[in-house]
């Protein structure tokens, strides 16, 4: 509620600044102008994430093809890498053979995007000499579970911080909010599943979602 109430006046401030910019284009050159715009945008995003976080366990169920959803996300993610991160290799193997998963489609997409975005950040963080950055999204049905994993060969997570990464507001990035994983875990658990991580500095990181069918 609080984040919602702050977001409304903040949106007014943001619109007012946009109008000023249209009427007086010279302000773009003012010292601190673009930084102020960026900071307001960040606050709006942060408030959006905060309300998402609160609603993490409230699911809006529908029946959808998890396989199709994951394949679409994989295509968009691959496209987003093509333009700027051509040094990252993205592959996926999605074979679920089931068209009717019941869950919250939008929240599900959010989780996968969070994991892929984190993987992209982790890979971009690392300097590769003989190899290349790689991200692999895999989804398969293993006995009575759907197992979705996101593997990267990025910077890895050290043992001393790995236990903290699912806590809200824990971030080790300059522009992170630290809500991505906390929210993702909440969403997966609301679906009756688990989200776990295994990581090492040398090989990278694997996040695994296990969902009951
Ligand atoms: N694939 C990964 N490889 C290495 N570190 C990771 C990976 N995924 C998450 N982390 C670590 O876990 C921390 C928490 O991740 P989380 O997604 O919750 O927040 P964030 O990415 O920092 O910010 P945001 O809220 O914008 O997602 C990150 O700051 C990062 O240090
Ligand atoms: Mg994140």
From TrEMBL:
Pfam families xref list: HATPase_c
- Keywords in alphabetical order, please: ATP-binding, Kinase, Nucleotide-binding, Phosphoprotein, Transferase, Two-component regulatory system
Q: What class of enzyme is it?
A: transferase
UniProt xrefs under InterPro entries: HATPase_C_sf, HATPase_dom, His_kinase_dom, HisK_dim/P_dom, HisK_dim/P_sf, Sig_transdc_His_kin-like_C
Among SUPFAM superfamilies, the record links this protein to: ATPase domain of HSP90 chaperone/DNA topoisomerase II/histidine kinase (SSF55874), Homodimeric domain of signal transducing histidine kinase (SSF47384)
Q: Which residues form the Histidine kinase domain?
A: 1-213
Q: Does the keyword Cell membrane apply?
A: no
Please name the GO terms that the record assigns under molecular function. Answer: ATP binding; phosphorelay sensor kinase activity
Q: Which reaction does it catalyse?
A: ATP + protein L-histidine = ADP + protein N-phospho-L-histidine
| SMART domains per UniProt | HATPase_c
State the name under which the record lists this protein: histidine kinase
Record organism: [Ruminococcus] torques ATCC 27756
